[in-house]
Every structure is written in structure tokens, then in C-alpha cells.
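ARCHIVE CARD
Drawer: 12
Card no.: 0347
Subject: one protein chain, sequence and derived structure
Cross-reference: see card 0346
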Amino acid sequence: MPVTLRDARDSQADRAWIRAVYRDYLSELSASKSGLFPALGEWPAREDEFLAGWFNDPSARPFVILADGQRAGFALVARPPEFPRRTADYRMAEFFVVGEARRRGVGAGAATLLFTRFAGQWEVVEDEYNRPALAFWRRVIGRHCDGRYVETREAGEVSHRFTTTPPRAPAD
């Protein structure tokens, strides 16, 4: 199944689709019961504000994940501020694949495309109670960088830090 990415800033339809599935995303995050994420509907007035930030922040790149040309998820790649710059050039700020597209390589394919497109130092952070996300990111990151990543735990979160390199140009 071919997986591609499309810049979500270019299409009102993509923005509307993200808005429609965003509540599913929040519902899954709040299900971990860690207290780090609001229960669905707890911040309804703020949801539009959060999403508007995705499309107006010059340091954020929102993407729609496509599987066989159909919308299957979204990702938000953020660049931490220059000061204070953390240890990463890029952060996977948000990542979601709809249920029917899971376990089909869609998420792994999209993550790999993003890591390749934005070569540099990366940080991916998960809620320590979100076991499916932890397993997914450990597998995908480990495969992408041949197991060369650093995992740390702090304040209820697990952070993966690693470096990606740009793809090599074909030899002449």
C-alpha cells in the first residue's frame, strides 16, 4: 500500500478532515488515564485554537498521511524555538493514524517519510502509559536508525532522541 504525505496547509479539505478526526485522536490520548491529556470535550473551546496554531505557526509543518491516495492520518512536525534550543532540530508534535489504516504499515511508512524529509536531530515523546504508542515508536525508530537512539523517561513521558541523515544521491 503506497503511503505518501501532503502538506495540510495547502488544502481547506485537508484541514477540515484533520479537524474531524482530531476528536478521535484526543479520545485515544485521554484513554491512557495518565492525566497528561484532557478528557474528550474537556477543552472544546480550545480545540479550534490548538488546530489553528498548526496552520499558522511558521515552525510547524502539518501533514495529512495518505494510504492509496486516501486520507489515513495526520502528523505535525515542529521545530523547537532557537532559544532555548533543546537537543532536537525536529519534534514529532502530533501523530495519528485512523483505526482502519493501522497495522498495515501506514504509520511506519509515514514516519519514515518524515524522518527522511527532515534530516537532523529528532525527538519523539510519548505518554509513558500509552503502551501501543511506545511499542510503535520503539519499533519504527529502531528500524529507521538501526537501533541508534536514546530513550529517557521524565515527568510521565518517554522521549526518543535520534539523528537522521538525508538520503544519499545515486552514484554516477
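Annotation on reverse: The radius of gyration is 16 Å. Residues 127 and 157 are 5 Å apart (CA to CA).
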